[in-house]
Amino acid sequence: MNKPSTTRNGQRRVLLSLGILCALGVTATSAAFTDHATLNFGTGAPGSGVGNPNRFDIAVKDASGTLQDAATPTAAVVLPLTTGNALSESSPVRLDVRFENRNPGVPGDLLLQLFDPDDTGEGDLFRNLRFTMYINGSSTPAVTGATADQLNAAAVTAPSVAPGDGVDVRYDIVIAPGSGVASLGKTTQIGASAKGTSR
Amino acid sequence: MRLVLSLGALGLAGLTVTAAALSDSATVLVQMDSSQNRFDLDVAGNYSSEASTWEPTSQSWQQGNPDAYRLPIGPGQSNVMSPGSSISGRIAVRNNSPRLAGLIELSILDPQPRGDVTDPQSGNFQELFEQLNFTVKDGDTVIFDHVPATQLSPFAWNAALPAGGIRVLDVRIEMSPDADNRWQMASTDVQFNFSGVTP
């Protein structure tokens, strides 16, 4: 009768000593050495790490050579024609525009587009105009004899314009052949825009 | 009577022997030398045009504790980011312990989170960290694969870094292509935090 109980006591002792071992093991783990080392990109000051400290800002040069934001059609800069004052089928009027990527800023692509600020619908003189576009003084036109819609569809882009750089755009504008009579006495405005997309 | 006496004499003799028992002692000296038990992590990094082939030299290592090691921007590189752009560099961690291995964990953190604070003038966000995606490679093993900053969790290597061991990591930080003009002029610091514990 006594013997089994002794064995039971013995088992209990074994279990107890295991328990102590486990506790020791846990203690040893939490008492490990630790260290950390940190590497920062940036000083903590605003703009020091990664980011975009400067605004991406496209501007257009007005007649006096000053950069204007002209971010909406209503705020557009009014430019004089470089040469010519009346539209014809044969001799083009010439418009020079300079768009700039303001410095400091972000390099970006400039998409050059045309629009009619005073569109009166069908029969508007703007729709009878044909545009030939030259980029940065090139003698080879980027687009030749195109309507505004065709020119916009061509999506002529000045790629990767650095801050402080810009793009010179020259438009030679004529009336579409055969539509001169229909255009008599009509006027239109011509809007040019550069849509910037940062790189 | 004689019998009884002799028994008594035997008993006495037995007592004497017990009292004069042999005794001995041995001393064990255990030397506890902790001079080699230092546990220490170092960091190094490179952000330059040579970063893709950079390997740390003995001069590269910085303690990075308690002050973070500030990774300099190398020649030909900039910290300017625009949507969809990325910057790449290399960082490294070394277990500078004389003989203790360490389990290393990497956390990527924003040391100065600014939340949704906006610039009073422009109305733009100031904090960029949440708009960043991280890619980290340990050799050919990709640890983080375009992980958005909001989903980053610490990464722990399974294998301990042996004493003197080095891990060199390729890091690529990309600004989310979905970020828009609201994050113009936003910036952030990026912190790479290595923490180690002896197993």
Question: Can you put this structure into words, describing what you see?
Answer:
The complex is a heterodimer of chains A (199) and B (199). Chain A has 199 residues and is of the alpha+beta class. Chain A has one domain (58-198): Sandwich (Immunoglobulin-like), CATH 2.60.40. Chain A is built from 2 helices and 11 strands, in the order H-E-E-E-E-E-E-E-E-H-E-E-E. In chain A, a hairpin with a 7-residue loop joins strand 7 and strand 8. Chain A is elongated and about 95 Å long. Chain A starts with a helix and ends with a strand. Chain B is mainly β. In chain B, 9% of the residues lie in helices and 31% in strands. Chain B has one helix at residues 2-19; strands at residues 41-46, 69-70, 86-95, 103-109, 132-138, 141-148, 155-156, 166-175, 187-188, 190-197. The longest helix of chain B is centred in the first third of the chain and has 18 residues, at 2-19. The radius of gyration of chain B is 32 Å and the shape is elongated. The interface between A and B is large, with 28 and 55 residues.
Characteristic terms for this protein:
heterodimer; A: 199 residues; alpha+beta; Immunoglobulin-like; 6-stranded antiparallel β-sheet; 3-stranded antiparallel β-sheet; 2 helices; elongated; disordered N terminus; B: 199 residues; mainly beta; 5-stranded antiparallel β-sheet; 10 strands; 9% helix
Structural class of chain A: alpha+beta
The number of helical segments of chain B is 1
Number of domains of chain A: 1
Number of strands of chain B: 10
> What is the mean predicted local confidence, pLDDT of chain B?
85
Which regions of chain B are unreliable across 5 or more consecutive residues at pLDDT < 50? 1-17
Structural class of the helices, strands and pairings of chain B?
Answer: mainly beta
CATH class call of chain A: Mainly Beta
The averaged pLDDT of chain A comes out at 81
General shape of chain A: elongated
- Per CATH, the architecture of one domain in chain B is Sandwich
Q: How would you spell out the order of helices and strands of chain A? A: HEEEEEEEEHEEE
Q: Which class of one domain in chain B in CATH terms? A: Mainly Beta
CATH topology of one domain in chain B: Immunoglobulin-like
What assembly state would you assign to the polypeptide chains in this entry?
Answer: heterodimer
Provide the β-strand percentage band of chain B: 25-35%
Instruction: Summarize the main sheet of chain B.
Output: 5 strands, antiparallel
In the predicted model, the low-confidence regions of chain A spanning at least 5 consecutive residues are 1-29
Give the topology string of chain B: H per helix, E per strand: HEEEEEEEEEE
> Could you say what the CATH architecture of chain A is?
Sandwich
Query: Which topology of chain A does CATH recognise?
Result: Immunoglobulin-like
